C-alpha cells in the first residue's frame, strides 16, 4: 500500500508537542523524587525515558494504520483482552496484595491497562454499526450489549483488585453514550438503578481497606498514621510548596520518604512541593490544552466512528487526570490511579501513548472521504 503524503501534511504536531512537554516534566520530577535511592542509568527517570521512547514507537505504529482498520479488528482484540485478564487471575504476579501483572520474561505487563484502548475501539465500532445516525436517541435495546462488553472486563479487573481502572471503563462507556444521546426515560432509569446499586457495590465490590479510605476522606483526623496517612502527607507536601516551590531535589516530604508512592500515584504532590504553584499552573495548562485539542478533534472528526474514538481517548485522559489530582488534594478517596504521562510505570505509559496515537490518527485522516462500513 502506497503511503499517502497527505498524512504527513496533516500530521498532528500539537498533540505530539503537548505529549513531549508533559513527558519532559515527568522525567525531571522522577529524577528529583527518587535521586536519593537511584543512581545513573539504572534510575527510574532513565527507565521512564526508555519507556517513553518505546511509547513513541507505539504511537507512530498506530498512526500508520487507519482507525477504521483498527476498529475492524476490535472484537478480536477484545477476546484477547478477556483471555489476558483471565491469565492474570490464574498466573499473575502478586504485589502488595494485588494480582495485576503478567510476567513475560523480563517484562511485567499490567493487562488491565490494555483494556482502555480496546474498550474504546470496541464501543466505537458497536455504536457506529448498530445505532442509527441523526437525531435518534439511544434506548434500552441499544445499551444491552455495550454494557455487557464493559461488565466482563470490569468484573475481571475488580477481582485483581483494581477498582480505579475498572471505573475508568465505565466512564468511557458513559461518555460515548452521552455523545450519541439517551432518551429521557432511559436516562432517569439508569440514574435510579445507579443510586440503587450503591449499597450493593459497598457490600460486595469494595474491600475493607477501600471502605476505610472513604471514611478517612470525610474525616482523616482519627487515623492519620493509618488509612489517612497517604492523603495527609500529600496535602502537607502540596501546601508546603508555596508559590515557587522548594526547588528540585529539595522537597522534604519526598526526599525524606514521608510521602508514599511519590513516583507513581503522588507525583503531583512532588510537583507542587518542589516547583510550587507556578509549576502546578504550568502542568494544568499543558493538560488542559491537550484535552481541549482532543475534544476539538472529536468534534471535527469526519465520521461518527472517529468522533467516538477521539471522545473515548479524551475521556480516559480527563478522568484519570482529575481523579489523580483530586486524590492528592483530598477531594476523592485514595484510589491508586496514575497521572497520565507523569506517573512512573511502563504499562500505563505505553497504553497512554497508544491512545494518543489513536487520537492523532483521527485528526490526521479528517481530510479523507468515506465512512466505516456498516
Describe the structure.
The chain is mainly alpha-helical and 374 residues long. The chain has one domain (5-364). Helices cover 68% and strands 4% of the residues. It has helices spanning 5-9, 13-34, 44-63, 67-72, 74-91, 111-130, 140-158, 163-180, 184-204, 208-218, 229-240, 252-255, 267-300, 304-329, 346-364, and strands at residues 93-95, 98-104, 107-110. It has a three-stranded antiparallel beta sheet with strand order 1-2-3. β2 (98-104) and β3 form a beta hairpin. The radius of gyration is 21 Å and the shape is globular. The model has no long low-confidence stretch (mean pLDDT 82).
Q: Please tally the β strands and state the result.
A: 3
Mean pLDDT: 82
Gyration radius, to the nearest Å? 21 Å
Task: Provide the structure class.
Answer: mainly alpha
Q: Quickly count the helices.
A: 15
Note the overall shape.
Answer: globular
Please state roughly what percent of the residues sit in beta strands, choosing from under 5%, 5-15%, 15-25%, 25-35%, 35-45% or over 45%. under 5%
Which sheet architecture does the biggest sheet show? 3 strands, antiparallel
Count of discrete domains: 1
Strand ordering within the main sheet: 1-2-3
Helix fraction, binned, reads: 55-70%
Amino acid at each position: 500500500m502506497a503511503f499517502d503524503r497527505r498524512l504527513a501534511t496533516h500530521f498532528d504536531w500539537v498533540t505530539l508537542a503537548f505529549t513531549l512537554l508533559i513527558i519532559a516534566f515527568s522525567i525531571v520530577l522522577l529524577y528529583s523524587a527518587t535521586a536519593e535511592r537511584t543512581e545513573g542509568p539504572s534510575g527510574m527517570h532513565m527507565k521512564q525515558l526508555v519507556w517513553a521512547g518505546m511509547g513513541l514507537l507505539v504511537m507512530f505504529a498506530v498512526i500508520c494504520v487507519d482507525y477504521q482498520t483498527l476498529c475492524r479488528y476490535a472484537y478480536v482484540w477484545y477476546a484477547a483482552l478477556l483471555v489476558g485478564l483471565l491469565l492474570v487471575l490464574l498466573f499473575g504476579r502478586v504485589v502488595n496484595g494485588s494480582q495485576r501483572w503478567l510476567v513475560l520474561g523480563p517484562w511485567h505487563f499490567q493487562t488491565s491497562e490494555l483494556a482502555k484502548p480496546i474498550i474504546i475501539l470496541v464501543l466505537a465500532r458497536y455504536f457506529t454499526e448498530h445505532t442509527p445516525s441523526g437525531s435518534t436517541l439511544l434506548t434500552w435495546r441499544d445499551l444491552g450489549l455495550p454494557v455487557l462488553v464493559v461488565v466482563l472486563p470490569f468484573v475481571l479487573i475488580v477481582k485483581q483488585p483494581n477498582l480505579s481502572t475498572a471505573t475508568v471503563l465505565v466512564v468511557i462507556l458513559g461518555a460515548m453514550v452521552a455523545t450519541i444521546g439517551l432518551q429521557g426515560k432511559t436516562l432517569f432509569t439508569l440514574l435510579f438503578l445507579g443510586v440503587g446499586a450503591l449499597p450493593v457495590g459497598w457490600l460486595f465490590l469494595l474491600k475493607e481497606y477501600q471502605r476505610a479510605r472513604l471514611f478517612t476522606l470525610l474525616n482523616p483526623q482519627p487515623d492519620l498514621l493509618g488509612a489517612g496517612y497517604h492523603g495527609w502527607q500529600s496535602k502537607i507536601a502540596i501546601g508546603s510548596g508555596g508559590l515557587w516551590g522548594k526547588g528540585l531535589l529539595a522537597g522534604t516530604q519526598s526526599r525524606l520518604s514521608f510521602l508514599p508512592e511519590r513516583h507513581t500515584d503522588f507525583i503531583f504532590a512532588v510537583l507542587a512541593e518542589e516547583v510550587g504553584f507556578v509549576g502546578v499552573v504550568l502542568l494544568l495548562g499543558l493538560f488542559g490544552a491537550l484535552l481541549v485539542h482532543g475534544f476539538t478533534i472529536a468534534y471535527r472528526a469526519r465520521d461518527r466512528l472517529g468522533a467516538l474514538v477521539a471522545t473515548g481517548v479524551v475521556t480516559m485522559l480527563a478522568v484519570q487526570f482529575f481523579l489523580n489530582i483530586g486524590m492528592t488534594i483530598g477531594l476523592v478517596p485514595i484510589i491508586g490511579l496514575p497521572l497520565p504521562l507523569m506517573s512512573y510505570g511502563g504499562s500505563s505509559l505505553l497504553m497512554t501513548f497508544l491512545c494518543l496515537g489513536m487520537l492523532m490518527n483521527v485528526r490526521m485522516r479528517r481530510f479523507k472521504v468515506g465512512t466505516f462500513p456498516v
